[in-house]
Amino acid sequence: MLIALPALESIGFRRFASAAENTPGTPPKRAVFLGFGFGVTEESWYPDIKQTGAQYELSEGLAPLARHQKDLTVVQGCSNQYNNEAHWGSTFWLTGANRYSVPGQSFGNSISADQVAAQHLGQNTRFTSLQLGSKDVKGSGHGPGLSLAWDQRGKPVAGLDTPLQLYHKLFSASDLPLAQRQAAIAEKRSVLDAVLAQAKQVQRGLSKTDTDKLDEYFQGIRDIETRLSKDEAWLEIPKAKPPIDEPASGLKGKEEIKVMYHLIAAALQTDNTRVISYRQPVASLLQSLDITMAPHNMSHYTPGERMQASQKRDIAQSELLAGLLDQLKATKEADGSSLLDHVALAYGSNIRSIHYLDNCPTILAGGGANLKMGQHLALSKDTPLCDVWLTMLNGLGVQSERHGDSSGVVKKLRA
Amino acid sequence: MKKLCYSVCILAMALGALAQAAPPVAELPKKHLELFSTYCFECHDSVMEEGDVDLENLAFNLSKDMKTAETWQKVLNAINSGEMPPDDEPQISDSEKTAFLDDLSNQLVTARKVLSDSGGVIAMRRLNRREYHNTIEMLLGVGIDVKSLPEDGGGGSFDTVGASQFMSSDQFEQYLKLGRIAIDEVFDRRATQIQGPIATTSTKTWKQRREVEEHANKKVSGTYNGYFKGGHDKAKIFLKTGTAQKGIIDEQMAKFRISKFEEQGPSYRRYLEHSLTQKGSLLTISPVYDREFIALPPEQPSGWRKTKHVVDTLPPGDYKFRFRIGALKGTPISRRFVDLGGVPKEKEFNRIGTYQITGTTDQPQIIEVPISLSKDGPRKFALREKRDPKGDLARSKAARKATGLGPTPALWIDWVEWEGPLGPPEGESQLMDWWLSADAGLAEPSRARKILEQFSSRAMRGTKPGTDFIDRLLAIFEVRRKTGEAFDLAIRTPLSIILASPGFLYLNEPGGEKERRQLTDRELAVRLAYFLWSAPPDDVLLELAEKKQLSQPEILRQQVDRMIADLRSDEFVSGFVHQWLDMERLDFFQFDVKRHREFDESTRAATRQEVYQSFAHLFRDSENGRLGKLLKSDYVMINGLLATYYGIDGVTGDTFRKVKLPKNSVRGGLLGMAAIHAMGSDGVESSPVERGAWVLRHLLNDPPPPAPPNVPQLSRLADKPLSARQRVLAHQEEPQCASCHRKIDPIGFGMENFDAAGKWRTTEQHVPKDKKARKANKGKKMEWEIDPSGKFHNGPAFADFSEMRYLIAKWKEDKFARGFTEHLIEYALGRPFGFTDEDLANGILTSAKSKDYTVSEFFQALVATQEFQSK
Fold first, then answer.
1. Alpha helix (H) ranges present in B203-250?
2. How much is the pTM?
3. Least CB-CB distance to B508: which of A191, A202, A216?
């Protein structure tokens, strides 16, 4: 695998963009995916289906996003046709997979859109992609998985659980001298060689099924090797200076998401990575809004207390998203454009509301994928959600023809 | 309808049994063809094919292939969502629709199972998180925190199922890190043992007692004199003179401090003036002194610092913690419990145990708790009265309103004491038997090699490591030595690598794809140990394997008996029962402290133990341990805490034991256990639907299909003052709902006499919560008598809970045993239970039934099968 060596004399982040993909001075493209598990309040979240195009009124649940209306597009009508799991809002959200697609197995998944984007956008940054999550995942309507991300083989990719962990990953430098850090990498390589030798011993005589199972281990080792090569390439380049303060530990709910959003903006700003996914907490968000019911109970809302809770959650989430967009707008690139101009952001869930899996709530924002913003788009019923992901990926420069169960690109989305 | 559906399945199974190779089929009864021709073919026949859907040529065999199953899934979704038939076309009658959806959704579940059947192949599995923890503990004698590893299982399968386990680069790095933590700790403990405990005396351990009043009184009087009284006095001066005082610069602040003093001052004064605080400390449930903190090494001001024994860091090891405690006169029984917990951070409290207090302040009791301290684990602990602290504020307010003082203190502590670190318990073999000391007479490279070989072989459960592997480990060791690291330090890196290598992490059994082969005796020992202990085999098993005797039926039987009797099988009980009964739900909800005051963390933990203990009791009783006693029994397995919770007299102490129930008790058996009721609730209200579905899934082995997507939800009744029964009965108005809920709901109603926290009740209340509703119904708290009567779908009627339980216990034991067997097979073999396992399950059931379904017999029968003993 080839690693483009970053310029050594300066740590100006713009330099890491490889010349092959970006003409000098053009800020790189980035992708952000935010998934929120249990869906939204149908009655007050979606804009009126009769008002489409640029002239539409934001709904009550989206009202906090009013100042960004021109920079986002609300898409209606999409779904993942194979998902029949009424409580799994994140497992297949970015993959569109059929869990029963592998004969002889009761669960399978495929690569998620963010990981496809990472293969393309992640070569020249310190971190190929970042997967974020929360310690609060149970009962939040996300479904199986370790983050929103699933790798090439459809295996779950682990994420960072707290803003503090992310902060340290992005900005905390090792204070060891270079020679020692080099020795550490060399030792890690020897460690991998040693366990590989042992793995080969175990592999002898295994059946086909078991060899496949052991392959996960081999793949894990290969992934670390790739990462080590990258670490090596970045060894002499100091980590970026943090544009924000170290977050407090133990953040929960609304505050946790808010700080995570700050760090997402900071990670993009410092060009630590160009692809980020975030599986957001739900239960702790409710608790931080003084809602005492469990997310699942709230999701089965009916007029009254539960629906009020659900709406309160919608508004809090919209406020948080508006805050992130503010920040992405306020951060300027070297050429004077805003960070948001170069970010393709997707926000949503595989669950619409309650147990409904059609018309998945979807908001797109930013100029990174050359999508048409400022619209309310009503696509025909049951348009594959993967058509949206494919359009977004194409716009980010990924030349693939399909993603998941996609049937084609969404022309109306193209700018 | 249910009968019909079953006859289809049974037919399919019978065929499968006759002709081994013939796969079972999920077939929709032909009678539904009529429904199709009446309502669907007009558009979806092979000529019209509207929407590319041709139902005429769609096979009624749902499991024919993936595509067929997918199309049927779409049919199910379209009817469920009300999309089909279209509004302007004739509609399917409710009864037809219900019957059809019932068959289709159940047969689709069957079809999915058929299509995902692994055909009996066991995919290699690695140690799951629990097993990893236990294996490290057995190997090294240290328990480490494994929370950083992902939990296995989920998605409906056990954590022992290899096909559902994953491995990733992150996880590998975690294994390296955790392995190192464990190895470091071993060395630290070893250093402690070699050097002896830190003491100036000649004894091997040190022991320190702290009189708690000094600390407590200093803290309480400091707050009282400084903040409350001090603030009050300064505020008075300010109001009199107008001169700013420290912390008081305006009138508002001054008044605030005066009111705070008036509010809290009396409670603080009561504490300080109480005669018992002269020689101990009171635990309050108000801010006055709500915890007794015990740090290791002890905090100031205790006088401990002055002693020469105390050091800043203490070696990890096993310690004993003791405290002398008594309850104050007049304390109600429900408040005679104390929690001990680790306090890693301010305000955090990780409960270690809960203890019932039978002593009084005149005759206190001494409680001793063994505590294992790890290198980086908590060193600060606290005692507090058992309760949910979320309710403290409300309790304090209520008490002050009534008496002007905070809640009456219930417990008093005389002193606390630490002793340790203690050596390994008597009889436990030297844990580092793979280690060679420097004076073993070996040159360094040979010594290191030998250590790595011995440790490797032990970690890999008796498999010899390859030379290549050891060579590479040695090379890593040598590089470290060259940089000047000591032998004892440099060797730790290769040792921890062994703990991240596949030979340690995977339970690998070589074998061909097609032919099954008998496991070797060593492999059998490993499989057996991870099945019954979730841990590696011990020396007894390995020696029998070495002599090739383990596979002899008589010896195998003895070993299974020995392993069940051994307390290590508690690991099986908690691991299996937790997953089998979906007990994860018990932790899903925060319980409403106002409505379920007694159901705090300690009670919740005890209710979980009740389930485990009830199972373990039967598991270890090879004479009378009949499985059916989980459906109904004339006894309960409880301790003092649960007895208090259930209102059962005459049980004190923290040990769980068998307690005979009075006739007609609603307790006894899973259906009477608070944990089961709490799982079927949301922490506030009971959920008849969750409970009914749970009973169908776990007791009756008739699991309802998963909650379908896109079914219209009934909203019109929301927040109307209706009983749970009225509310849920509305489910049955819509055929999409009725197809499952007619089975689920009656059972759930039968359990309505248990509230969300499992307490018995006879009435149910509705408190309107919606703002509008609150206005409309101001002061109208509605209450009605609970009506638990009902009728099983296509089954007998029952008048109340006891009758329902009786019917289940009497008629459903076979079903229950069947479900248990299927789950046990999946757990033990580490692969999903498939249709190909019919004979296996029937064989085990026949054996077990011949012994009255004695729980241990299921295990004996399963272990004796070809499937368990072959790869």
1. 213-222, 230-241
2. 0.88
3. A202
pLDDT at B795 over 90: yes
Per-residue model confidence as pLDDT tens digits over A163-178: 999 999 999 987 888 8
Distances, alpha carbon B6 to alpha carbons B25, B103, B702, B743, B816, in Å: 13, 10, 10, 14, 16
Distance CA B428, CA A299 (A): 53
Question: Smallest CA–CA separation between B539 and chain A, in Å?
Answer: 23
CA distance readout (Å), A7 to A16, A233, B811:
7, 10, 77
The pLDDT value recorded for residue B718 is: 52
Residue B374 tokens, joined: 């790890």
Greatest CA separation for chain A? 66
pLDDT < 70 regions, chain A = 1-24
Judge residue B308's burial from the number of C-beta atoms within 10 Å of its C-beta, 0-12 exposed, 13-18 middle, 19 or more buried: exposed
**């790890």: which residue's tokens?**
B374
Determine the Cα–Cα distance for residues A276 and A267; give it in Å rounded to an integer: 9
The domain ranges of chain B are 25-115, 124-197+432-508, 208-422, 520-565, 576-811, 814-869
Neighbours of A237 (CB within 10 A): 16
The residues with which B341 forms a beta bridge, in sequence order, are B351, B382
Nearest residue of chain B to residue A202 (CA atoms): B503
- Judge whether B507 and B126 are in contact, CB under 8 Å: yes
Q: Extract the runs of DSSP E, i.e. beta strands, from B187-246.
A: 206-211
Helix (H, G, I), strand (E, B) or coil at B31: helix
Which class for B849: exposed (0-12), middle (13-18), buried (19 or more C-beta within 10 A)?
Answer: middle
Asked if A227 contacts A122 with a C-beta cutoff of 8 angstroms, the reply is no
DSSP A147-181: SS-B-TTS-B---B-SHHHHHHHHHPPP-S-HHHH
Non-local CB neighbours of B716 within 8 Å, separated by 6+ positions: none
Nearest CA in chain A to B77: A84
The two tokens of residue B666 are 């609603």
Q: Cβ distance B625 to B619 under 8 Å?
A: yes
The secondary structure of residue A373, as a DSSP letter, is P
Q: In angstroms, rounded to a whole number, what is the distance separating the alpha carbons of residues B175 and B173? A: 5
**Interface probe with B: pick from A130, A135, A157, A217, most Cβ of B within 10 Å:** A217
CA B866 – CA B291 distance, rounded (Å):
57
What is the rounded distance in angstroms from the CA atom of residue B156 to the CA atom of residue B164? 10
For residue range A362-394, list pLDDT tens digits in order. 999 999 999 999 999 999 988 999 999 999 999
Query: DSSP 3-state assignment of B271?
Result: helix
The answer to whether residues B117 and B836 touch, using CB atoms and an 8 Å cutoff, is: yes
DSSP three-state, residue B743: helix
Q: Does B472 sit within 8 Å of A197, measured CB to CB?
A: yes
| Closest Cβ–Cβ partner in B469, B476, B506 for A187 | B476
**What number of H helices and E strands is found in chain B?**
32, 17
Torsion, Cα of A334, A339, A342, A345 (10° steps): 170
In the block, tokens 């199910």 appear at B76
User: Mutate which of B104, B472, B523, B766 to test chain A, going by most A C-beta atoms within 10 A?
Assistant: B472
**Average pLDDT of chain B?**
87
Instruction: Provide ipTM, 2 decimals.
Output: 0.85
Rounded CA gap, A95 and A122, in Å?
19
3-state secondary structure B32-53: HHHHHHHHCHHHHCCCCCHHHC
Count of beta carbons in the 10 Å neighbourhood of residue B738: 21
**The pLDDT of residue B14:** 38
Topology of domain A30-171+250-413, per CATH?
Alkaline Phosphatase, subunit A (3.40.720)
The packing angle between helices B570-580 and B129-140, to 10°, is 170
Please name the helix (run of DSSP H) or strand (run of DSSP E) that holds residue B527, with its range, or none: helix B521-532
Q: List, as one string, the DSSP characters of B718-731.
A: TTSS--HHHHHHGG
